[in-house]
């Protein structure tokens, strides 16, 4: 079986992190998010995958190539203009020759693709949709089904009074190839809003497969941070928390540094004297953390330098940032190449755009 991975999506919700970085390349536990998706598919013997993409496509192909480094075969289907989820699959049609899986490129899940495939085949479904229960379905696509799992209704972003189930579309669908004939060529067309309701009206067998285990849409900075908390605490099968500090090659931790909770360090990092890292904390390759820094519940990407006494709590810091001595932030999301001057307290900032320089004392 082949998979179509939708690697576009609403990257604006992750800004300023995705201004210069494709959402698929945003690091999760120090590897590009898309790499996590590829590993999940590969574990279920899905070895051929089509990257359906548009915005900032080159960094993705440059990193993943033909997929051989990851034990899979990758193809690339590029959109000149946004085609929607179903339009993207139609655009990749030349690579598809049987039942295929479509996966949204911004979910982390423990979905058992093998069991879902068996479910799909046993019911002779045209489409099987993975569904998951959430506390508040009003921000998602609600999926109603009968006692046998056959879908009876779709409703995108329902009003509270319209909610009849907490089961939502989890962003993974098994699709029979003849369904592609119902999707117009080079037109914007959605599985969720256009194709699935059409199939129901025409009486085609569409089924819902309940997902057990972990699921997270990492589409906002808040959810991105929560994803790291969840993974580092072992809530998903995608990562087993380490007993020792996972650290990359040539990373040096000063003997007086204090590390508690789940912490992950990339390669070529320097953790200075009297630094306190209170997990969950993830620090990417090539970072320098100066003397006396306090970092708690934060994710720092690559090649960022924190001067002495910097304090961060609940923050996301992208690549190549510089924070000078004594500066601090809580709940701040920094794009790449941000510079913060000495003793600057980022109390009034929540999002800082790439390339910004913040000077002087607050």
Kindly describe this structure.
With 362 residues, the chain is an alpha/beta fold. The chain contains 6 helices and 29 strands. The chain has helices at residues 33-43, 57-64, 84-91, 113-122, 191-201, 221-232; strands at residues 2-6, 27-28, 31-32, 48-53, 73-78, 100-104, 107-109, 127-133, 141-145, 151-156, 167-175, 206-210, 215-217, 252-253, 258-260, 263-265, 270-271, 276-283, 288-289, 294-300, 305-306, 311-313, 316-317, 322-323, 328-330, 333-334, 339-340, 351-352, 357-358. Strands 15, 16, 18, 20, 22, 23, 25, 26 and 28 form a 9-stranded parallel beta sheet that branches. A 7-stranded mixed beta sheet has the order 5-4-1-6-11-8-12, sandwiched between helices. Strands 14-17-19-21-24-27-29 form a 7-stranded parallel beta sheet, with no helix packed on it. α2 links the parallel β4 and β5. α3 crosses α5 (191-201). It is elongated, with a radius of gyration of 22 Å. The chain starts with a strand and ends with a strand. The relative contact order is 0.12.
SSE blueprint and pairings:
Elements: E1 2-6, E2 27-28, E3 31-32, H1 33-43, E4 48-53, H2 57-64, E5 73-78, H3 84-91, E6 100-104, E7 107-109, H4 113-122, E8 127-133, E9 141-145, E10 151-156, E11 167-175, H5 191-201, E12 206-210, E13 215-217, H6 221-232, E14 252-253, E15 258-260, E16 263-265, E17 270-271, E18 276-283, E19 288-289, E20 294-300, E21 305-306, E22 311-313, E23 316-317, E24 322-323, E25 328-330, E26 333-334, E27 339-340, E28 351-352, E29 357-358
Parallel strand pairs: 1-4, 1-6, 4-5, 8-12, 14-17, 15-18, 16-18, 17-19, 18-20, 19-21, 20-22, 20-23, 21-24, 22-25, 23-26, 24-27, 26-28, 27-29
Antiparallel strand pairs: 2-3, 6-11, 7-13, 8-11, 9-10
Helix pairs in contact: 3-5
């Amino acid at each position: 079986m082949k998979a179509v991975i939708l690697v576009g999506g609403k990257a604006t919700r992750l800004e300023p992190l995705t201004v210069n970085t494709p959402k698929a390349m945003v690091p999760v536990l120090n590897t590009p998010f898309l790499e996590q998706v590829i590993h999940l598919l590969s574990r279920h013997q899905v070895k051929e995958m089509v990257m359906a993409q548009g915005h900032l496509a080159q960094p993705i192909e440059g990193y993943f190539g033909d997929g051989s480094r990851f034990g899979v075969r990758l193809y690339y289907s590029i959109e000149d203009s946004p085609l929607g989820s179903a339009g993207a699959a139609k655009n990749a049609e030349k690579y598809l020759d049987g039942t295929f899986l479509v996966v949204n490129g911004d979910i982390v899940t423990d979905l058992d693709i093998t069991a879902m495939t068996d479910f799909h085949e046993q019911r002779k479904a045209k489409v099987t949709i993975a569904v998951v229960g959430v506390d508040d379905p009003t921000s998602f696509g609600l999926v109603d089904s009968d006692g046998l799992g056959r879908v009876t209704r779709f409703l995108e972003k329902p009003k509270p009074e319209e909610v009849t189930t907490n089961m939502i579309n989890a962003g993974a669908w098994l699709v029979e190839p003849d369904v592609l004939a119902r999707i117009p060529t080079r037109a914007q067309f959605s599985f969720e809003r256009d194709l699935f309701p059409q199939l129901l009206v025409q009486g085609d067998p569409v089924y819902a497969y309940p997902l057990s285990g972990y699921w997270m849409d990492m589409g906002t900075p808040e959810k991105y941070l929560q994803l790291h908390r969840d993974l580092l605490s072992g809530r998903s099968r995608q990562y087993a928390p380490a007993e020792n500090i996972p650290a990359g090659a040539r990373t040096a931790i000063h003997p007086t540094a204090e590390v508690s909770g789940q912490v992950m360090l990339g390669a070529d990092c320097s953790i200075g004297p009297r630094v306190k890292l209170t997990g969950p904390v993830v620090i990417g390759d090539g970072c320098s953390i100066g003397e006396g820094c306090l970092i708690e519940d934060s994710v720092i990407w690559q090649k960022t330098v924190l001067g002495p006494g910097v304090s961060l709590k609940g923050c996301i810091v992208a690549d190549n940032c510089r924070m000078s001595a004594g500066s601090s932030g809580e709940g701040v999301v920094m794009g790449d190449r941000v510079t913060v001057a000495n003793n600057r307290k980022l109390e009034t900032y929540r999002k800082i755009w790439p390339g910004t320089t913040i000077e002087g004392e607050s």
